[in-house]
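Reading a protein record of the kind used here takes only a little practice. The integers have meaning only within a learned vocabulary of local backbone shapes. With that in mind, consider the following protein and its fold in token form:
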Amino acid sequence: MGSKNKLKRFRENETFDNVFQPSREELVEGNFELKGHWNEKVFKNNNPLVLELGCGKGEYSVGLAQKFPDKNFVGIDIKGARFWRGAKTAVEDGIPNVGFLRTQIELIQHAFAEGEVDEIWITFPDPQIKYKRTKHRMTNTDFLQKYKSILKSDGVVNLKTDSEFMHGYTLGLLHGEGHEVLYANHDVYKQEGSPEEVTEIQTFYESQYLLKGKAITYIRFKIK
């Protein structure tokens, strides 16, 4: 994407009511006004709050928001030029129950209060296969504890990926640490019983993976 196009998207993001871009300092120093008040200040209701981490272009966040109008969704990514597409679609189509937050996932507990979130989706994260990249895997022990700090006591996490490595690594970690695996499927489009929200909503890259015959895996779990 050209730099002019990126700058145009950054500027347009600043005009969208559904895009929130706090600075790192604002978050770390505890000055982010939406922490603990997302439903009250953004969505103006008490519906369940659901996050998509590493939301990319925002297709999944928007798709979930359309499928579940009685829930509130926040897509999170550090790359605003990417989620511009989802934010713009939500504005143009009048989808009120989805917003986008530009920040790093490791700062998640600074953007949401303890027990504020009902559910988390992690869709097609970089599997960070090299051992030295373990600390960047979005389902490692440190990240799970960050998620636990903002989830309600009965909150759940969903992982959808095309990476057999990420699927296996996460399952092994969950079992090893005693977390509760609610559902696991290594090929959601071929096995019956897959949840509708897993198979009915697809990202652009997911549709490309499927065309290549790649299996899409899914895990739903609770962090203990």
